[in-house]
Amino acid sequence: MISQPSMMNGTSARLDAPVTPTKTLEVPHRHTRRIGPRVCGSSDLFTFRNVWPNPTAVAHPENHHGLHPQGEDETRPHSEDSVRARSYVRSHLVKGEQMTLTEKARAQTERRKPGVGTFIAMTFVISWGIISLFVLAPDLVGEAGLGNPVFILAVWAPAFAGVYVTWRREGRDGLKGFFQRLLMIRMPAIAWMVVLVGMPLIVYAGALVTGTAGDSPVFSPWWSVFGALAASFFLAGTVEELGWRGVALPLLQKRFVPLVSGLLVGLVWAGWHLPAFALSGTAQSAWALGPYVAGLLGLSVIMTWIFNVSRGSILIAWIVHFQAMNPMFPDAQPWDSLFYVLAAAVIVAVYRRDMLSKGNAVTDLQRPAKEEARIR
Question: Given Cys at both, which of 235, 246, 247, 337 links 291, Cβ 3.0 to 4.6 Å?
Fold first, then answer.
């Protein structure tokens, strides 16, 4: 075998030795490490795999990156491959540093945009401010109910706040994509079964336990039911979904898994309804607070799962909300609320992969470019 002196320190290395890729070079941020003639520092972990084949690594295992050891004299001769490898690493470190700065700038811009806190503050200020008029000046605003336009403004407060936050975050063009989510109707069949069959079963099961199964509302004349359905669908709490599931849920899912996000939305949602328990003429005034809050938490978890499998459809969330307050259903409190909690627990157990990880969570305020419902 023929050997030749190494270009680094004169030791012998075999010419026919196999050339292997270099090992991973990891440069941790917040530390300064000398690479060749320059000093590089960063705040991330940059990893470069297989930087360049380096023959000198055979003769010098301790110098497996093809770079001069830290503090070594740069005037020593080095191979062309070593120079190219060093140049490759330097260029990628610079690119990595630039990418880090870009990501930091994006994070700062994101923090300056209105978020969930702004949405919640606007919702409560608008809604509770209007509701206070019904408590402090009932003769001025009249009785609370869907027949009162002032009360409707209070009910729509989450929608107003959601549209404002979307406009500030996404701009005028973003609002178009936001409202297009009202046209999304695709969803897995199992989710449609939960909405169209499961929810009525929950209500009537609760009514059976409560003893009100035969007390379904009677509409006279019969065709007045259509007016009640239209008012419930277009004027009542369904409009809230422009805010709760339209904005609050996707923004929370940027930071938390769907289960936690759904519980947080449900908690705020329940707190927002508290004044309704003090107003005469509302359904909540005749209900117990504890089961109602538990039921909203369970329903919020169910709606979170439906929201994600529908890829962020506001229309489907609107339909679910309508089903929960369908005027044709009997009053089943408090048992229907408890059954919603049980249904939510079943969904979390069956779809725990989706509910406990952020992989399939919808986080965009606009309609996705490629709308696809995930079929289970």
Answer: 337
